[in-house]
Amino acid sequence: MAYVDPAIRPQFDSMPAHLREHILSMGVRLETMADLMGCLERIIAEQPQK
Predict the structure, then answer these.
(1) pTM higher than 0.90
(2) Which end of the chain has fewer CB atoms within 10 angstroms, the N or the C?
């Protein structure tokens, strides 16, 4: 089950809805900005290269 710490909730909520939904579907635990950045880097790395 995904979790977003209230301390970083404003940054999380400022992202596009489809990105927030994707992150939540990953079931990650985001307690710090470093956690959020790591999750975004993981999403980028998963994208197919053109």
Answers:
(1) no
(2) C
The 10 Å CB-count burial string (b at 16+, else e) for 10-25 is: eebeeeeeeeeeebee
> Using CA atoms, how far apart are residues 1 and 6, in angstroms rounded to an integer?
16
Query: Over the stretch 20-34, which tens digit does the pLDDT of each residue have?
Result: 999 999 999 999 999
- For the chain, report the end-to-end CA distance as a whole number of angstroms: 32
Cα–Cα distance for residue pair 26/38, rounded to 1 Å: 13
**Model confidence band, residue 49 (pLDDT cutoffs 50, 70, 90):** confident
